[in-house]
Amino acid sequence: MTDEPAISIESLSKTYAGGKQALDNVSFEVPRGQIFGLLGPNGAGKSTLINILAGLVTKTSGSATVWGFDIDKSPRNAKRAIGIVPQEILFDPFFTPREALENQAGLYGIAKSERRTDELLEAVRLSDKADAYARTLSGGMKRRLLVAKAMVHSPPILVLDEPTAGVDIDLRQQLWEYVRSLHARGVTVVLTTHYLEEAEELCDRIAIINHGRLIANEATADLLAKAQDKEVVITVNRDLDGLPHHGCFRKVEQVGPCDIAITYSKEEANAGDVVKVLADAGYEMIDIRTREPDLEDVFLRLTRDAA
After folding, report:
1. From which residue to which does any coiled coil extend (predicted)?
2. Same domain assignment for residues 153 and 26
3. Where would you tag: which of 3, 107, 188, 298 has the fewest CB atoms within 10 A of its CB?
4. What's the average model confidence in pLDDT over 211-233?
């Protein structure tokens, strides 16, 4: 394993005709062998960045390398090193999954003796649909077919652009099982998703783009450590006759006749301080439930601050 990154992006910018700037001086690296999350709100520039790496969009300025190949100087090698699963479901309705994979392998110049069509169909659980017309597949099956197409040339990097959009829970789990198996074999995975719990569970490192700018790029654990707000829901011994107030409380909300949800900063207080405020107000605590901050809390705070 070399120390050279799987993907290196330096001062990358893209301005479309008409003046819309999709990317503004973005720089980061994707380490080899990781599952890397690329997050951001709709329109943040994620798909533009992916399309530049795929050779579908021309950058305005900056540079990018894929598996050590400059996308301008060695475009063929760069494209061969990456497999892209697009956000949109794109397929030819008159080809079967087997034909679709065979055609895709042919486009990459892979000899018939070296093609892995049956192996890929089995891996994405489409063996029983191998000879059915693609138009008869469900939405989840079409998504899995796109993953198989992206892997026909055995690229060391797989980019998944919103792969589980519109996919039910069972198929989502099947997809992640396959992605984890690829990762275990050394494939570097770049993931964009709006399901932040997926990114939190799967990704080793996460970058966040907002309004075309990079606003975060850290190990997932370090990013989660930035979340300072914590919530407790406390059940007291009688109906609430008012909401308690304290300087460390960020938000106070009544969520039931005897239930109150209090959000506070972990830097300024702890659960014991919250309980004391309620006790001083004359309430006896019956039950307490806590919610630890998650990636969604960090994401919302960072994108809000950068707006």
Report:
1. none
2. yes
3. 3
4. 84
